[in-house]
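User: I'm putting together notes for a lab meeting next week and I want to include a structural view of one of the chains we've been expressing. I don't have a solved structure, so I'd like a prediction I can at least talk through. The sequence is below, exactly as it appears in our construct file.
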Amino acid sequence: MPNAITSPLIGWALDRYQPNRLLISSLGLILIGVTAFPVAIPDELGLHVFTLVLLGITVSVALSPVTPELLYFMHEKGCNSYGTVYALFNVAFSAGMFVGPVISGALYDAAGFFITMLYMSVLMFFLALLILSGEAVKFYRRRQASRITQPEKGEETPSPDVNILISTPATQNVEKP
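Assistant: Thanks for the context. Below is the predicted structure for the 177-residue chain, given as structure tokens.
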């Protein structure tokens, strides 16, 4: 129920404020990791209800940015079909819904509920770290590309000959004017 209420609100906030969707999704994964762990504490009904409500909210924080980000990625690759994007999301979501319970059930049988929830929390932190490291690499590459195209203060602007050589593929012969 909390997921059904908060997903439209988070979708609206994402559309309105245009934050980095992958960073928001990583934050959601971190919050899932934090809120999933207290569910494993036995005999605390109030804590279980509270953490399950928080878990529903954090799942919507993690999943709401995924579809628009996937749409943006597919648009960059030349696919402008919304149906393809939603089908891809649904295939991945369904595969997770099939594989997740099988793995967690086997882990529960082997190690118990507490270890299973600990494993899931660590997995969420790892996935968030993976997404954040990818975003850091993209940020670094964009920063390096902007330094190449824009000279820093005090540097000379490259001559037109250099710009021609930089923007021309290596397979063509370039004649200087």
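A couple of points you could mention at the meeting. The CA atoms of residues 40 and 113 lie 6 Å apart. The radius of gyration is 23 Å.

User: Perfect, that's what I needed.
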